Amino acid sequence: MEENQRRNMSTVTYVILLGFGELEEGGAALFSLLLTLYLVTLISNLLLIIAVQKSSHLQTPMYFFLCHLSCVDVGSISSIFPQLLWEVLAGGVTISFTACVVQLYVVGSLLTVECFLLAVMSYDRYLAICWPLRYSVLMDSRVCVKLAVASWVGGFLFLGVMLALLASLTFCGPHIINHFFCDFFPLVKLSCTDTKMVEKAAFASSFLSLSPFFCTLLSYGCILSSILRISSSTGRHRAFSTCSSHLTVVSVFYGTLIVVYMTPPSETTFSLNKIFSLLYTVLTPVLNPLVYSLRNKDVQIALMSVAKFHCSGNNQG
Predict the structure, then answer these.
(1) Of 33, 171, 251, 302, whose CB has the highest number of CB atoms within 10 Å?
(2) Model pTM?
(3) CATH at residue 201
């Protein structure tokens, strides 16, 4: 009883994020690398959004969803990286417990929104390949807007369930999180109450959150079946090339995500999960604009047009 009273008196009001403080010798190199990746991610995603908005050739459902995906990537990486860069320089950072929970909600919500958007994009590719004659009717502008809104709303509502699970816990220490941002399972470890039921419930809900992934698999199963029925090799290659970029990003994104969130939490997995978390928070936002579209000729033409317009405007000024 005395121990419980003592622990309840030390309610968590702040947390210390260790980040990658163990890499003190390579801190400067890591900071330079992360800063470069952050700037490349911001610039490439913003350029993609500008190119799509300025080019009439890119006013298609695929690029409409890509713009939303770029917004998600810019939001998620911006909610983590400024803090991460400071962690690398200082060897850790102290933030309020409230700010930690807010970061968990924002990052988790945007992560879930990305899952939904990737599923929607796979459905778009399914309609384009399997129902080409009805594609413009089945995926018109109103349907695109509804699917995009549903992805955003669904992502932020789903994380409300996770916050409800956290609200059932009492947090009284320790104050240290061995991670570079406030993630669910490391934050749960700060609780002084029994967390087994909460961890099991969160682990079970993570399976439900994979429903967009199963929808993606179903879409690609139908796409593969349709491609295999194409008689010419040229036709099969052309059909597959329309979804190969999306399939690449989905593989990288879900591969790291499953390792992090579908593995039962333990002390030995936290350090490994920290590395995989860095992969999906950095690698996927960088890959999205590069793999999806910056190698696309239409996007390159649109970017060149934007650059010429900007240069001509400066020259006139």
Answers:
(1) 302
(2) 0.85
(3) 1.20.1070.10
